[in-house]
Amino acid sequence: MKQIARILIIVCALLASSAIWAQQKVTVKGKVLDSAGLPVPGAVVMLEGNVSAASMTDEKGQYSLQIVPSEGQKLSVSCIGYKTVSEEINGRSTIDFVLSDDVEELEESVVVGYGSMRRSDLTGSVTSVKMTDDAVNSNATFDKLLQGRAAGVQVVSNSAAPDAGVSVLIRGASSYNGSNEPLYVVDGVIISSDSNASLFTQGQDNANSNESTNGLMGINPQDIASIEILKDASATAIYGSQGANGVVLITTKTANRDRPVINLSSSVTVSWRAKKFSMLDLDEYVEYLEGRGPNGVSMLKFVYKDPTTHTELLVEPMDWQDYVERTAVSQNHYVSIAGRPKNTSYMASFGYTDSEGIIKSTGFDNYVLRLNLDKQVTPELKISTKTNFSYLDSRLTQGANASRLTAATSLIRSMFSTKPYKSLREDEMDELDDVTATGGVFISGPDRWLSDFENRKQEVRFTPSISVEYKIMKYLTFRSTTGADYRSSDQYKWKSSRINTTAEGSIGAVARSRYIYWNSNNTFNFFRKIGNHRINATAGITFSSNGGSTETVEGWNIQQYKLKMDALNSAPNAAYRYYEYESHLASALMRVIYNYHDRYVLTSTYRLDGSSKFQGKNKWASFPSFAFAWRANQEEWFHVPEISMLKLRLGWGRVGNQAISSYQTMSTYDFTTWPSHEIGNDAHYSVGMYPSNLANPNLKWETTEQTNLGLDFAMWNGRFTLTVDLYNKNTFDLLQNKNIPVSSGYERMWMNMGSIRNRGLEITLDTTPLKFGGFEWQLGGNITFNQNRIIQIGEGSEGGELFLTPENRQFVNYFYGDKIGYGSYCNAPLNIFIEGQPMSLFYGYKTAGIVQMGEEGVPVSAGGAMREPGSVQYIDLDGNGYIDDNDRTIIGDPNPDFTFGFNTALTWRNLTLSANFVGSWGNDIYNVNEVMNTDVANMNVNITHDAYYNAWTPENMSQKYPAIGKYEGFDIKVMSDRFVEDGSYIRLANLTLSYDLVFKKSKSIKGLNVGVTGSNLWLWTRYSGFDPDVNSYGSAWRKGADMGSYPSARSVMCNVKFTF
Amino acid sequence: MKKIFAFIFACSLLASCDFLEEKPTTTLSDDVAYGTEGTLEAQIYGILTAFNGDSMITGNMNECLMDCSGLIQWGANDGFLTDAQERWTCSFAFTQYSQHPYNYGAYRGFYSVINRANRLIDRLPSSPVDEGFKKEIEGEARFYRALAYYYLVRGWGDVPLRTKPVTDYEEANAPRIAFWEVYAQIVDDMKFAFENMRDYARTLEVASQPAGRPCKWAAKAMLSQIYLTIGTLTAHADDNFWDPAKRTARYGVANPDFSKSLEGITSGSSMKEVSRKAFTEALACAEDVIQKGPYKLADDYRQLFRWTEPEDWALPERIMVLTNSPESGVSAANYTALRSLPRCPEGTANVSSSNSNYGRWRPVRFVFQKWCETYGGIPGEAQTNQGIFVRCQDPRFDVTIWHTGYYRQDTGTWEDLYPYPTRVYNRIFNKDMEPFFRKYLDPSYDGNSGRADFYLMRYAEIYLIAAEAAANLSSSPGDAQWQKALDYVEVIHARARHSVDEGQPEAEYPKWEADRFLDQPDPGQALIDGIFWERIFELYSEGHEYWDTHRMGAGWLAETIAAPLDAFLLLPEQQYDNISALAPGDRSYCRAHYGSNTPPFRTNPEDLRGSLILEFPEMEVTNNHAITTEDAVNDFLTVRP
Q1: Which of B138, B150, B125, B110 is nearest to B43 (CA)?
Q2: Does A214 touch chain B if contact means CB atoms closer than 8 Å?
Q3: Which residue in chain A is spatially nearest to B324 when comparing CA positions?
Q4: A709 with A649: CB under 8 angstroms?
Q5: B353 and A435 in contact by Cβ < 8 A?
Q6: What is the pLDDT of residues A41-93, one digit of tens each?
Q7: What is each CA distance from B199 to B37, B38, B191, B311, in whole angstroms?
Q8: CB contact under 8 A, B410 and A798
């Protein structure tokens, strides 16, 4: 847009100058330099108020202008990226200008889908994220740096691991199908944020092993110039069926100087654990076992050779948390060079990150290369290419399977549950003996995880794009961008049988997945200003295709464990799997922005999407939107000079979601094998085939309609800005993989049913309360209130009587989410979805402390067993005398009341102290780790200090921890309010002290910035786990659980940045 | 603008022609799945896999039902249970609760079979394959469908009846249908199967046994068992799982209406007539199989469970078998072995380390003693096992039960088992010391996979079906039918007796002479009970126990199984002798590994009527909107213990 404006100015100026040729003229010339003293070419020098006298600077920054002199004439110089300056001529013939950077002007145009527009023309809800140096330096991925920085955007880490995934939720969850993630678009190319393939399908402890990593590691935050978040439907409707969860638009850096600018930055980060749990040490553990009586004592022989005399210690005490954790040192280096010689702009960068996790052997290396090139070939034709290449080498050691969390599947679980000693015996046979003798509970500990487990993922990602921009006529430009996101990852995993209870041998697997997403966007852009009317229109067609494949080879029962992955080839059993998929999308899109008098702006968009995932009449769907903005401060009657902006926005739009896997509308078949002893059949099986899905040919798009009302307000030259947005977002025809009666032969079927509403309020405030001398204090923040409701579950929904509160039992439609745990722990669904209630509520038993001595009328368990003194006291809500399923009620809500972030910065001359706070309020967390760490029913695991020393005894009538020996399978299997905790928190996410040096005179070095940033230095929370910023499963079906989460860290980073 | 739009739409529509069509590559679609003889065969294996998968061998059905029979018990670690307490409680009540995952899993597995069969039958007409071949395939698919329904109807009584593949959500919700309607469908399918399936020779030709595929005679054999079941159910109509009053309210008919499955029976026929007709059919079918069928008893009972020689998998005694092989690509394929053998027993191969998954199906001591008592038991002489039998003369006994002790390969230690030659003191009486099943001892078993098959039906059972049907048809002791029953049992006995090593004398145990049951107060019932126990001894751990104990009515279950079993566990010789101070009424010692505070077995016939079928799976009730909570409750379901 700015480019066009500039060309227009020049054209007008030249036309005008020829018209007044006849008059008497003098020549004024001079140089235009930037603040660093370098020439600024392409700057427009113009006689103020007279477009007929204008000139442009050449490569040396020189200009020459002929003017008809008169009194009080001013010469102004303007150039993109610089503040416009003007100076009175006063009869001089040589005038030099020094231009200073204009940050505000750069921000003025906003990238929106398929183009950009003036910020003042915005009618939808669009948030720009400030890209500050300390933010980009201290976050490995850009999605993490969105946390607390944009209203309406809720960012929750899946875990604190260095490369863990992040759940980004824009304006609340509105889909059950697991994909509530926004669409990510980098320089116009849609990229994938998926994580990875799953490995290990053989063997109970290893089944469906999958460690979710962050799918956005390939984009270096330091390459990013701006991030725009499109939140309401009027802004995202241009993305049609992909826009329902919001859109994150990323623009990477380009050169804004002709001369080359080199940036070089390096940082070193030291991280250490933020929290340690108090588990029993060896002496305490022995005391605990002895206290358990004969069963326990029999275990002591594994600690002492002679359990009666406690002689001959066979073990050494071990604090496994100390053993596993470390102080991690990470480093990050980044170099970039950018320049704009002769109509060509380039930006090349290289970033390297070596990140260590605080769990030994976790971490990653990440290399990112970027090259952005633009070339103005002719005045009409511009071509550009942007290429990103990344190589990620992740080392994951968290474990094999998060949902079946045991010491045999998770290093972190093993760190807690392993008994607090390490065997001193060398003989492996002894170890085996130990295994069997303790009743099948594995004794190996985290040491084996560190020595006998390998999990590595190497991903190559290549994201190229080519754009052509051709100015067909004065008002019409054609733009075509074709790009791809190609990802190829190799993952391998090895788990020795020495860290497994059931496997007969070791297991190894390799997986290779390939993923490619093609985009081709072809648009015409029309811009015309006639009088007070300004029309900006975009229309075009886009195609995208999305395909991928995964191949896995897995070997098991491997007897040789010392060779690790090298032994895979000797696997006596192996399985090979290959799977591929493809989907296509074709769309037509249109947007018209009409601006009258700079007071009224009307935006309308329309998109028609066709998807290969749907059939017949459902293949095509249209997504319209309308929005209107009124810039009240532009009205003539508006006379409040302090108010620089007062804008009201109203928008409505419809967007879709088609995030289901391919081939759901057609009947498909899977292969299986039937064992055979046939003579001559060396494979010993026959191939079988069976229907794998219940196709639903009537599937259609999930649709979201959203209304947004917004207010933008600014005062005192931008020292106070306020943005308020109110929204109402209704999602209907929800795509659900619905449980159906198994008597149909299937368990689930994809259907469109039900509706969800999200309503919310977002407030963003930026102020500069103090500014004098070299001192400046900035304060900003944002807060988001979102209210989520299931309006309707859908036809034939499951109904039943539920206790919504202990007093209120009523008939409601509902369904359960997925089970959280497996086996004995939390083997029940945690989340319930009830019509009229927020999504993903916690559902389980209410408790009233512990049964005390002499207490009467204690309800009996469902199995008929008495709950004796010292047992957990469940509340018998329906009063039938038994504790059974009907006594469950809502026990928590993982949805926050509000989330917020605020930042403040104090600047004194070159020194800046800034702090960034993030937080969440009112959300509950189900602490599965606590369930496991306090399990006094299982004597084979270590427990927390409190679970033993504060356990109920007739003398110490605790209300919190049940008596040893009175704890039962039921207590750990079901969901109860005993483990629901308040997850509210406020965190000082970053505290940065930085010092900027500008070397005006030096020829080589232009700038130096040194800084120290502390992350997570302070946290306020009532949550007892590692960190309240946790959501072990990313999906809505299993929300709010903290299970085997990675320990959180505190860190301090020192960074230095040079500019040449 | 208009032109631009026209252009845009033209482009989009052009693109839509092909660009937006799905063409799956690694999953197959309808058009290729039924295209050739080979894919039709693959569909058949797909159906079979559903039996092998969810419903049977991987355990849902067996784990769900075995311990509810009263004759097999559960012996796994608590860690594998969802709620140990609940599970034990279920086994003392002879039924499984609706929330139990295995109850649901078995139910799901059988409907998976039905769905696959229905889909195949539905798509066959449009398949380009030769009509004759298609008929064979349809016959086999209907055989499996009938078999799955037969398990379902016995397990849960009234169940949804589906004979067409489900295509949408509406159809997915189907009501429960009166069980006699389900039987009618089963009989119809089995008859069709018998007419259209391949004969034995052709089955061998196509699938080259020992793949486990049944031939047409399997349908006839199954029919004999189905009729026998109808016969026994209706023979105890007043005492069985349906309540005439509730039936009348629900279906307008008080008594089961077998007019569609039994010729000559009308809606008004008495239950006695129905029962007699069903037994007649059962006997006719069984005799048909015996006289015209291709099957033969194996010479030696032990050969059936040897699992070493190629001919062991090709025995003509196999009517239908769920097969196992380590190479089938399914880990832990040999669930039969995994779940019935002790940990790392001698005689198996390559067992390198522990496996805590062992021994989840266990014989009960009650059957152990009963067997010995019936067929030449040898009493214990050691100080620790006086007063109990330690083994018996029947060669089948040692093939079936692993007792006394075993040598553990991985540790090189001897592990004691019931009946304890040397009782171990100072050790809690636990599941490790209960006997194990031995039938699935497979030398290639490596702790994870092996090749011991699971017999769904073998020829020996046909003789026992014929015997039982004849016994029920006998009007007075000693008549022709009575004698027939004894003769058919003797066939089984004779094979058992000479299942000894070459040169060894035949095993000595009593023949069923003509006067065998005549001294009993009710000789007719005594003969039927005798055949029942014969079924248990011949077929123990082959998955028949639950069905056999649950078809003859609540009074019978109480009298023949529940009460004696409960009394047995209280016998002094079954007590753990190191427990000295027991509180009065504390029963925990006799079933120590079930945990303490467990209730006694349900022995009241009125309570047991609710146990004759399983509670309807809760998940199905929740998801199936054509079934209300009221519909889901068994007629006689009483308050849970």
Answers
A1: B138
A2: no
A3: A675
A4: yes
A5: yes
A6: 778 888 877 766 778 888 788 888 888 877 778 888 877 667 778 888 887 88
A7: 18, 19, 14, 20
A8: no
